Amino acid sequence: MASNLTLLAGPDALRLLRARGLRGDDVDVVPGASGGPKWLVLAGLDRALFGGLFQGRTRPLHLIGSSIGSWRLACLAQKDPVAALHRFEAAYIDQRYPPKPSPALVSETSERILDALLGDDGVEEILRHPWARLHVVTALCKGPLGMEHPRVQLLGLALCAMGNVVSRRSLSLHLRRVIFDTAGDTSPFVGQKDLPSVHLPLTKENLKPALIASGSIPLVLSGVRIPGAQTGVYRDGGVIDYHLDLDFGAGEGLVLYPHFYPYVVPGWFDKALRWRRAKPLNFRRALLISPSPELVARLPGGRIPDRADFERMSDTARIRAWNQVVSESERMGDELQELMTTGRLAEHVQPL
Q1: CA-CA distance, 258 to 169, in Å (whole number)?
Q2: Which part of the chain is the PNPLA domain (predicted)?
Q3: Using one digit for the tens of pLDDT, what is the confidence trace for 113-161?
Q4: Is there a contact between 210 and 226 (Cβ–Cβ < 8 Å)?
């Protein structure tokens, strides 16, 4: 068993990996989950994958993310994804807040982080990328969730949570999945049947607002209005699609999923519902790559970072801990590259 990685594959993916190993040309889709600071444990793995696996690619690669996952994939959709990841990492780790910051302040800080991630040319590079097709998942709010007053938002969240216990489909009473993408008619996600979905093109005018909206956690950041989209307030796409339990479309290629956990939770309100996990059918051709329990045990506090770190740690302690997480994450990237180079990756993959 690999010491730093947990490798899990659906049956179709397992057959392909045993036959050919992990090749960039065999990948059709890369998902990116919500999770705030959890993404830092994947930083080294992202650099290994984004920086080398897809070099020389020509056919489309569909990237779909919600919240922080869409930001990670916005790095992959730039000309130099590793440089973009470094900019993102530095700006993200360095964010600082007073006690109980206002949503406006957190949104302002997020915009600065996004500007660092995109650099001078990131918007144009994403829109004109020769093969990366970015999909940004957002949630258009209805009723109380569209209001900025915290008590009214809490009411909307409570209504969502109560209905969701009975059925995820009840979320459509309060939220509409809106996906902004650069894929046009070629998107493999237009056939989603679990919840109503709207697809809109990413443009120079809406790319930044869509990415900000995708990460605008209710009560933590302000809602976003997106130019050219349906009127209303857009919030974190992870509220609907937390870990992206989606129909990833037709095809025989891999769904390559770097993830914080060895399991997938469909929506934000499903975190506490132990019986609500991903549908096996959606992950038949998925390779899920996550940190091993041994690697997690070496992280500060023996855990993956989360948003509570802003409250439980001083800025100095948090920044030190998060940098240590990134340093440990390099082991994941190094180990994956070694397994691919030696052709031994399939030996370490377990059935998902």
Answers
A1: 27
A2: 35-241
A3: 999 999 999 999 999 999 999 999 999 999 999 999 999 999 999 999 9
A4: yes
Q: What is the C-alpha separation between 320 and 333, in angstroms, rounded?
A: 21
Number of Cα atoms under 13 Å in the Cβ half of residue 202: 30
Q: Measured between alpha carbons, how far is 174 from 251 in angstroms, rounded to an integer?
A: 32
**63 - beta bridge partners?**
30, 134
Spatial CA neighbour of 51 closest among 81, 31, 28: 81
Distance CA 240, CA 52 (A): 32
Residue 11, SS3?
helix
C-alpha 95/C-alpha 190 separation (Å) is 36
* Token digits of residue 41: 């444990």
| 55 close to 49: Cβ distance less than 8 angstroms | no
30 closest CA partner among 151, 186, 161, 188: 188
Kindly compute the dihedral angle of the four CA atoms of residues 328, 329, 330, 332, in this order, to the nearest 10 degrees.
Answer: 120
Find the helix or strand (DSSP H, E) in which 315 lies: helix 315-342
**Whole-prediction pTM:** 0.96
3-state secondary structure of 182: coil
Q: With CA atoms as reference, report the closest residue to 145 among 123, 117, 164.
A: 164
pLDDT digits (tens, 9 = 90+) for 219-264: 999 999 999 999 999 999 999 999 999 999 988 899 999 999 999 9
Q: What is the dihedral of CA 137, 141, 142, 148, to 10 degrees?
A: 180
Helix, strand, coil tally for the chain in percent (to 5): 50, 15, 35
> Closest Cα partner for 110 from 29, 187, 199, 222?
222
